[in-house]
Design goal:
182 residues, alpha/beta, four-stranded mixed β-sheet, 8 strands
């Protein structure tokens, strides 16, 4: 049985809500032999019920889904559907990644509801390649550069650590930072 961390922001996590989360989100564990601790964040903001789920599976792969509706239970159901669609859509690549087992192939016998126009075995097409010099700067300058270019992310070299990092615009309008490291 998978372990869960269920947190609430502006909502009380009742035993029945926790049980529903664990039952519904736990469905994604049937596709894998090993699943790490599943993290679920339930948030209520301005009448929107937001569910964020992160599922670590073997090989360092993370599944992540987020849904927002006017009802928490509906958001939970939709995020589970989204995660299952991701798993089914990527099943061939996941199977290749888990050559020594780990992906439960028998769970994909009836794949019809998740059919996609693109064959799942196709490689991801790279339609454009850009080269640029990764300049040293601080995070604030990188965000400014990203905004000046009207991009959603910007790659830069941190002037203090010399590591290559990425700043990005989050869907909530705030900014995120991805730091590289060992």
């Amino acid at each position: 049985m998978a372990t869960f961390t269920v947190r609430g922001k502006n909502i009380e996590i009742t035993p029945s809500l926790r049980e529903y989360v664990e039952k519904r989100v736990g469905k994604v564990t049937k596709y894998f032999d090993k699943v790490g601790e599943i993290t679920v964040l339930l948030t209520v903001t301005k009448g929107r019920h937001i569910v964020e789920v992160t599922v670590p599976v073997q090989g360092g792969i993370l599944l992540r889904g987020e849904e927002a509706t006017m009802d928490m239970y509906t958001s939970i159901d939709l995020v589970v559907e989204k995660l299952e669609r991701q798993i089914h859509k990527q099943k061939t690549k996941l199977a290749r990644r888990f050559r020594n087992g780990g992906l439960k192939a028998e769970m994909f016998q009836d794949d019809v509801p998740f059919a996609d126009k693109r064959d799942a075995s196709e490689e991801y097409p790279v339609v454009k390649t850009k080269r640029f010099v990764v300049k040293p700067m601080d995070v604030q300058e990188a965000i400014m550069q990203m905004n000046l270019l009207n991009h959603n992310f910007f790659v830069f070299r941190d002037s203090e650590t010399e590591e290559v990092n990425v700043v990005y615009r989050r869907t909530d309008g705030n900014y995120g930072l991805i730091e590289s490291g060992n």
